[in-house]
Amino acid sequence: MEKKFSFAIVGGDMRQINLAELLARDGHDVFLYAMEKSNAPDGVIQKNNISSLSNKRDCIILPLPATIDDKTLNAPFSMHKTSIDDLFSAFSTGQTVIAGKLKNSLFEKAGRSGIRLYDYLDREDFTVLNSIPTAEGAIECAMSETKTVLSGRNCLVIGFGHIGKLLCAKLRGLGANVYASARKSGDLAWISAYGYKPLHTAQIIDSIAEFDVIFNTVPAPLIRREELLFVKQNAFICDLASKPGGVDFDAARELEISAVHALSLPGKVAPLFAAESMRDTIYNILSEWGN
Amino acid sequence: MEKKFSFAIVGGDMRQINLAELLARDGHDVFLYAMEKSNAPDGVIQKNNISSLSNKRDCIILPLPATIDDKTLNAPFSMHKTSIDDLFSAFSTGQTVIAGKLKNSLFEKAGRSGIRLYDYLDREDFTVLNSIPTAEGAIECAMSETKTVLSGRNCLVIGFGHIGKLLCAKLRGLGANVYASARKSGDLAWISAYGYKPLHTAQIIDSIAEFDVIFNTVPAPLIRREELLFVKQNAFICDLASKPGGVDFDAARELEISAVHALSLPGKVAPLFAAESMRDTIYNILSEWGN
Amino acid sequence: MEKKFSFAIVGGDMRQINLAELLARDGHDVFLYAMEKSNAPDGVIQKNNISSLSNKRDCIILPLPATIDDKTLNAPFSMHKTSIDDLFSAFSTGQTVIAGKLKNSLFEKAGRSGIRLYDYLDREDFTVLNSIPTAEGAIECAMSETKTVLSGRNCLVIGFGHIGKLLCAKLRGLGANVYASARKSGDLAWISAYGYKPLHTAQIIDSIAEFDVIFNTVPAPLIRREELLFVKQNAFICDLASKPGGVDFDAARELEISAVHALSLPGKVAPLFAAESMRDTIYNILSEWGN
Amino acid sequence: MEKKFSFAIVGGDMRQINLAELLARDGHDVFLYAMEKSNAPDGVIQKNNISSLSNKRDCIILPLPATIDDKTLNAPFSMHKTSIDDLFSAFSTGQTVIAGKLKNSLFEKAGRSGIRLYDYLDREDFTVLNSIPTAEGAIECAMSETKTVLSGRNCLVIGFGHIGKLLCAKLRGLGANVYASARKSGDLAWISAYGYKPLHTAQIIDSIAEFDVIFNTVPAPLIRREELLFVKQNAFICDLASKPGGVDFDAARELEISAVHALSLPGKVAPLFAAESMRDTIYNILSEWGN
Does C169 touch chain A (CB under 8 A)? Predict the structure, then answer.
């Protein structure tokens, strides 16, 4: 990215601080808002109130997710609560804003105010990059929770979306026997084509007793008590699906089956990489929009 | 597939004969039409004229492509020309027909006659399976046309669609340094995520001098004289894109660059696998349609 | 293993308890000695003193290592100290004994007493199996100690022995750029042949600044202060070489380079797999010796 | 290789011509002997008789194999027969000579004459590099001889030496299910550790019916009539073992099993790479000998 931009980073955790540092290191002007309790990295300017946000920046960056309670900005480093509505009202017409996990109502609001609003999670480039630390984090989790190795073990990955695809590739790369489940005939063909063993998601129960490690990526109740009854002793289940996940954790506890709900892995296991993924996606957006 | 069906296989080459044999071996009733010059496999019944096609079968199977000249059935084993229009007129209402590379006008005709018409190439499952022999065939071609090994060489795959994805995976599996090019930021993210080196298709010319083997999968003029001028001595170019392909073959000849247009690889390098892919796709269609 | 044997397991930690359980589950007679403080697994008989060891068993199994202080048995679950010399004196002539990390003097003693003594670490089968959890443990360690992913990063593996070979394969399987160093031209050829980038161990210093993660497997001072001075900020060093290892940890601390000496990984990260490896090796020894 | 040497290349086929070209391109002085019928590459000097070989060169390079009939030099581009004995008599004391497949008697002769004689095949670096085109050539052979793909097929590799190891890695990289057989427990452990399925070579017959493609690397009669009787219809056997190989080809023909004896693959499928491997090995020898 040769052109230099001005960025306002508004709210967020360490990942946003890392992002600020990366952007500043590339020579851009970077301003931090709603992060008074953090130490601004070298070359980044700490701003004390959000009123100056009405000065147009090339790009305003909100966190992922932008809000947790649907009302206020996700800003753990701020001493104040900032209402999302107030924030959006402060932006100038034509302002480019990038944020994560936005509600439809915000897009409507942005549309009416002439704000160019982008959600990371609508971007294929970001969701792919974000799947890398999720897949690695799932492997790290399985390695640390089991008493054996992944090499040579039967591993099942439920769902062949972004995370499923990368997780299968990495598990095979470690020497595991990889099974993957899906529902669509096209996905099942891909599973075969990559050399994994295909399973129909509706028939998991028939072969669930074979697996040493089970990774779920589908947000649907797929590993219920009835499936858990057949799970191998010493098996481990890693649920990667967003809340409420796909595993009946109460039943698992009762049946003494080891199961973990591993959420928000990118920020936890690889905050630096997560910040780099944000930066790359922001650059892609800006170059596509011809900024 | 537990249920038994009756199939009419109408026209086609050895791949369709292999398909007839596979279906018969699974216990289905199989009839051959417009293939009088072939030897019917065990358990397959040779029919001498197509008039009896008006008897409804569970499924009528035309070849891939169903027609080459847009008028008559692709039937190299027949002594007669059969018009596609006459053929479709013979089918009963409600008849399921599966064929390949169909024109839109045939779908219209089928719609008006109440025929349930399916094109293999509209099916993700088939196109994925069909990419496997294409990718292997491309590798076989590169191995036999070059004086060196693929292991350790710089290979470029242009385009990250079905064939591109599988070809990259197999080339890396053989120990090559794999570069892949695409235009969309999402595809470029996938290329990185799988561990290949990403390149923007519009910038191929900048690094084309680095590559020992170049595989093109995009049907657009990407390797023109101006790119060929930079290609390494002893490099090899394998063009997999359908006619007219993406390589200026005249310029390549003139510049003494080795280049091959490798077309219709599945039927050539793996006819048996190609027939199995058709069979699996037909079973998928029938089970989805609740036949 | 169809034939049934009688085993005496003498000393050791949880790995030996797991081993006892595995052997008992296969239908063998298993007796525990010098493990009074442990709970004997189902079907395993707890013995209170070692005097009955003079009753010949098909195989007596000592831990790995058999002794830590060169004098007494490694027996953390025992209330008593047992001298290695006394132990060996108790064994009958012709007794088969398997143990780990034995001193030459014990082999001499065994030779004079007609004891058939085997060291796990002399067995290629065991050292290979034991390298699997070491390689996985090293990866788990790197994943948890770094703030980024392994995918796409430059990883160096110093030494291309058992652990080096498997570690390289697994790192590449995770999508890392793998460099490996060795000294012998044959090993360097293997590194190239497998598709990793070869480096001469004597020249590590020239390219050490390139690496995000460095794994050392060679027990020699290779990562000294002078090499550490060139190591990238944020890089991570995982030393797998037995004590004193190959890294100057004092210098690393001073230079604020993150470095870990990861020892005895099989027992720590995969005690169950470690017990299975012992069992398989014991079966191999017994079948080769025609017991 | 910064230092410049003088090389005499004596006899051999296109591979030696390629080698001459590579050495000349690196700036060395290169002279061709016993190759009068070939065109010397740029910068290489054609010599008409071997008498001048008594002028010491830094290194004299004979072909691989140096002789086919055990008496005369392997020199298809020469108009004359040159006796190996005469040739060796012509060399000066202290002369470095590199050649391939030498008989013990020549080493004796060399020892007595003070000639420093090296055989490529004694070098681990060369045999590893030479295994790469052998493994790729075996795959190319299987791809072209079968009517199906390697992806998803059951492939057996008999023997886990240099070629076996690389062939297994490449077959898995193409998506095959890889089985490998060996006799030593250490090799079987390696097979497991790399994630292939291990088989004892003595028990091949028990599972030979499972395999779609069988590669033999062991020069011993392992695929006899009794094994062939169980081989799957449509299976393909590729024998890579040096003559007489490991397959009963007469029985295979009789039983209509497709089998090929694929010999001398490096020179056939990758002559340029084969020349590069020779060059690299020669440089390794010269640098180790402190020339």
Answer: yes
Q: Mark yes or no for CB contact A189/B288 under 8 Å.
A: no
Q: Which fold has domain B6-122?
A: Rossmann fold (3.40.50)
CA distances from C197 to B176, C185, C276 (A): 12, 14, 34
Closest CA in chain D for residue B166: D174
Nearest CB among D152, D176, D195 relative to A175 is that of D195
Residue numbers of A between 191 and 220 with CB closer than 8 Å to B = 192-194
Between CA D167 and CA D158 the distance in angstroms is: 10
Assign domain A131-267 one CATH number from 3.30.390.50, 3.40.50.1380, 3.65.10.10, 3.40.50.720: 3.40.50.720
Residue of chain B whose alpha carbon sits nearest to that of D133:
B149
Do residue A185 and residue B124 have CB atoms under 8 angstroms apart?
Answer: yes
The string of pLDDT tens digits covering residues A56-115 is 889 999 999 999 888 999 999 999 999 998 898 889 888 999 999 998 888 988 888 899
Residue boundaries of the structural domains of chain C:
6-122, 131-267
Average pLDDT over residues B266-287: 94
Which tokens sit at B286? 């029938």
* B175/C193 CB distance under 8 A: yes
Q: What is the CA angle A79-A82-A87, rounded to 5?
A: 140
The answer to pTM > 0.80 is yes
Distance between A262 CA and the closest CA of chain C, angstroms = 15
B152/C194 touch (CB, cutoff 8 Å), yes or no: no
How far is residue B62's CA from residue B138's CA, in Å, rounded to a whole number? 27
Of B132, B148, B272, the CB nearest to D272: B148
**β partners of residue A260:** A238
Closest CA relative to residue B214, chosen from B161, B150, B280, B131 = B150
DSSP state for residue A256 in the 8-state scheme: T
**Pair type for strands A197-200 and A177-182:** parallel
CB D99 within 8 A of CB D119: yes
Q: What is the pLDDT of residues D23-57, one digit of tens each?
A: 999 999 999 999 999 999 999 999 977 777 877 88
Count how many pairs of residues, chain B against chain D, have C-beta atoms within 8 Å.
81
Tokens representing residue C33 in the block: 């000695």
Angle formed at CA A160 by CA A156 and CA A163, multiple of 5 degrees: 90
In angstroms, the separation between the Cα of residue D133 and the nearest Cα of chain A is: 24
The three-class DSSP label of residue A149 is coil
Question: Which residues of chain C does A271 touch, with a Cβ-Cβ cutoff of 8 Å?
Answer: 147
B39–chain C Cβ distance below 8 A for any pair? no
Cα–Cα distance measured from residue C155 to residue C210, given in angstroms and rounded to the nearest whole number? 9
Closest residue in B to D170 (Cα–Cα): B174
For chain D, state the CA radius of gyration: 22
Q: What is the ipTM of this complex?
A: 0.92
Taking domain D130-265, whether its CATH number is 3.40.50.1580 is answered by no
Query: Chains near A, with 3+ CB pairs < 8 A?
Result: B, C, D
d(CA B36, CA B14): 13
- Put simply, whether A151 touches D (Cβ < 8 Å) is yes
Judge whether D6-122 and D130-265 match in fold. Answer: yes
C133 touches A150 (CB < 8 A):
no
> Partners for C (CB, 8 Å, 3+ pairs)?
A, B, D
